[in-house]
Structure formats: C-alpha cells, structure tokens
Design goal:
By secondary structure, the protein is mostly beta strands. It is 7% helix and 40% strand. It is built from 2 helices and 14 strands.
C-alpha cells in the first residue's frame, strides 16, 4: 500500500521513492510544467440597436447596428487596444442642399476619434438603397463631420464643424467607404452632385 503522503506525486515516483530510490519527480513526469503561449485573440465583434461597443486590439473587429450600419476595423489597423463605439448619431444635415444632395441611410457616429496605421483603412458601410430620382451611382458620397480647421475661438463651449465628402463604392449589396481616420463625429451616406 502507498502511504497517503505519496498521493498526487505519481505512482512511478512514489514506488521509486518508497523503494529507497532517489528519482526526481520531474524525470517521470516529463519535467516541470511549462505554460503554453497564449493563443492569439481573433477579431472581436459587437452589435446593438442604439450602440455597439467593444475593445478592439491587434486582431481587429466589426461593430454593427440593427439599422444596418457597420464599422470594420482590419487586423493591425490600431496601434493598441482601443474601446470603440458605433452609435446612432444625433440628427444633422450632412446633405443639406435639397437641390443637389440627398441623405441615404442613418446618421451614425464613431467614438473616439481613431486613426488607421499606414497601409490600412477602416470600412464604414450601410445596406445599398435605391438612389433618388435624377441621381446616379457616381453621385454617391460619404459625409464625415470634421472640426473646421479655420474656426475662430468665439465661444469656448462650441466647436465649429464642417462636412467633408468622400467616395463610395457599391459592393455585395452595401454602400462602402474606406477611410484612414474617423474624427469622432457624425457620419452619413448620401448622394451629391
């Protein structure tokens, strides 16, 4: 019978030690246990009705809203782990010239401001929608609200912004814009001539 003090040491070690042998436990078990290197984390994802929020790291990730808006962050696009939120944006007038512009899809917002590492880009997309009468696919635009670089500090509580338009492509039933940086303000797809 093996004494209780040997339970958990291993039968081969207990027998060797019980018979007067001087065998190291590591020799019979293959050596000390080494921790396996951590598995690389895969891309993260989050979805929500009003907001999708997740910490995105090296592997990238996708955030989506039930209104169809989606933000894709590719592997290696962010310098470090960053908590990113995709939200339904406050009402605004990105496409305010009723004669030459029309909004398509929801107003959305990405927080905080994020900048893609050189050679990568974020993709913002919404489901493809019918174009208003008189507009063509070449009129598609992605409007991004940015701080006006020429603003003057008249009121310390307000920040003057302006809308900048960027190209859009249609792919797999979605309007898609690839952007190297998102300033942390409102975004919207539309048409503009």
């Amino acid at each position: 019978m093996i004494p209780n003090r040997w339970v958990g040491v291993g039968l081969a070690s207990a027998l060797a030690l019980g018979c007067g042998g001087a065998q190291d436990v590591g020799e019979t078990t293959g050596g000390p246990l080494e921790e396996a290197p951590p598995e690389p984390a895969g891309p993260v994802s989050a979805s929500g009705t009003e907001e999708a929020r997740v910490t995105v790291g090296e592997a990238g990730g996708t955030l989506s809203l039930t209104n169809g808006a989606r933000l894709e962050i590719p592997r290696g696009a962010l310098a470090g782990d960053t908590e990113v939120a995709l939200q339904v944006g406050a009402d605004g007038r990105a496409f305010s010239d009723a004669e030459r512009q029309r909004p398509l899809g929801p107003m959305i917002n990405v927080n905080p401001a994020i900048l893609a590492i050189e050679g990568t880009a974020f993709t913002v997309s919404i489901p493809e929608q019918p174009l208003p009468s008189g507009f063509e696919q070449s009129d598609l635009a992605f409007a991004m609200e940015e701080v006006d670089a020429e603003q003057r500090a008249i009121d310390t509580l307000g920040t003057q912004t302006r809308w900048q338009f960027y190209p859009v492509r249609v792919e797999n039933g979605r309007f898609r814009a690839e952007i190297g940086g998102l300033p942390g303000h409102r975004l919207q797809f539309g048409v503009a001539r």
